[in-house]
């Protein structure tokens, strides 16, 4: 059977219309957890800036655990391994340099590919130093996870840790652009670059277990190995950073704030405008890193006003899922194609009549 141009165009128009109708069938969007509480066993790190002395023990321990002592590093030829003693990212400071704003460890540009956590310093108008530990916030609704096209970043549904699989990563840097806290660090120097971020030591010492007790300081103590824990929390000499269930750490944070008020010290900053005295309780929908401080969070490089209390991933995913759930995008496409085809058919018909 011979098909002329008119029949072909009519068939194409009919197919487009049929496809457009078929897209009205319901599709399945990813369910949103907005408004739901954190999982019961969500694990977090709690950082009290007022007791941090800026010693960098946490930075060194993190680097040793996640870079120096990793099997893939130890299996390299000796001259290619990462070593603290010949790596300038963690310099040993003289006592007189510890509170010097010009000291080399004050990393103005924040995290880089060699470190999963750093200590930064803010000097107030009275020349008093305040420290802040910077690392992945393990958000309840991570923008990085939502943006990653290959699921290299995922959020554990049980303990809330945002994990990273470098074997899946394609180096697109979408996670960098999606993170409101500017955390993922990129390996600019590599031909096949990946990112670096804290995973609460999941990739090295596997903390995923609920078999632990809480000690007097509030830290999680594992029954199978009391020395197990995130590298940074196990070495902090002042207890500035602790690791445990989110509800326990949040209660501990508020307890410290309330006791300070009762004593008339009022040493902790409270963001009354936003109603958040513990950073991470509300900002960006809640995070897996809780922080209390003596100074405004904004001065510690947390742009809370810009970030807001709602994760942007809820909005972006809501738009995407709505578009595809109701077939808006396919319908619009097929409608446009139908109009083009219809015009072509009409022109062809008029041409034949002439």
UniProtKB/TrEMBL annotation:
GO cellular component: cell envelope
Chief localization: other
UniProt GO MF annotations: 4 iron, 4 sulfur cluster binding; metal ion binding
InterPro entries with a match to the protein in the record: 4Fe4S_Fe-S-bd, 4Fe4S_Fe_S_CS, FDH_Electron_Transfer_Unit, TAT_signal, TAT_signal_bac_arc
Keyword NAD appears in the UniProt entry: no
Protein source organism: Mucispirillum schaedleri ASF457
Pfam families, sorted: Fer4_11
Lineage: Bacteria, Pseudomonadati, Deferribacterota, Deferribacteres, Deferribacterales
Subcellular localization(s) per the UniProt record: Cell envelope
Protein name: Uncharacterized protein
Superkingdom in the source lineage: Bacteria
Keyword list, A-Z: 4Fe-4S, Iron, Iron-sulfur, Metal-binding, Repeat
KW Iron-sulfur (keyword) present: yes
């Amino acid at each position: 059977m011979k098909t002329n141009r008119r029949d072909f165009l009519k068939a194409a128009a009919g197919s487009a219309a049929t496809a457009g109708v078929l897209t009205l069938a319901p599709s399945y969007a990813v369910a949103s957890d907005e408004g739901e509480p954190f999982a019961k066993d969500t694990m977090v790190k709690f950082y009290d800036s007022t007791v941090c002395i800026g010693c960098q023990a946490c930075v060194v321990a993190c680097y040793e655990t996640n870079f120096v002592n990793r099997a893939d590093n130890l299996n390299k030829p000796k001259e290619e391994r990462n070593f603290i003693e010949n790596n300038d990212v963690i310099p040993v400071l003289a006592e007189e340099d510890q509170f010097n704003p010009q000291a080399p460890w004050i990393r103005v540009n924040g995290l880089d590919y060699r470190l999963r956590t750093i200590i930064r310093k803010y000097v107030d108008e009275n020349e008093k130093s305040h420290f802040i530990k910077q690392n992945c916030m393990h958000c309840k609704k991570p923008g990085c996870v939502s943006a990653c096209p290959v699921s290299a970043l995922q959020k554990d549904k049980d303990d809330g840790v945002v994990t990273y699989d470098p074997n899946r990563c394609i180096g697109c840097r979408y996670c960098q652009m999606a993170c409101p806290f500017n955390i993922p660090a990129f390996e600019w120097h590599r031909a096949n670059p990946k990112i670096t971020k804290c995973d609460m030591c999941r990739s090295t010492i596997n903390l995923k277990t609920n078999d632990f007790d809480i000690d007097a300081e509030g830290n999680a103590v594992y029954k199978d190995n009391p020395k197990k824990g995130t590298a940074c929390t196990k070495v902090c000499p002042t207890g500035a950073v602790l690791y445990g269930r989110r509800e326990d750490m949040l209660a501990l944070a508020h307890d410290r704030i309330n006791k300070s008020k009762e004593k008339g010290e009022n040493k902790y900053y409270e963001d009354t405008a936003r109603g958040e005295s513990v950073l991470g309780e509300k900002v960006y929908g809640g995070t897996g890193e809780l922080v209390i401080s003596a100074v405004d969070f904004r001065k510690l490089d947390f742009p809370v006003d810009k970030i807001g209390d709602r994760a942007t991933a809820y909005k972006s995913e809501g738009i995407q899922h709505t578009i595809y759930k109701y077939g808006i995008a396919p319908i619009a496409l097929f409608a446009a194609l139908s109009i083009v085809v219809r015009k072509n058919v009409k022109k062809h018909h008029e041409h034949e009549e002439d």
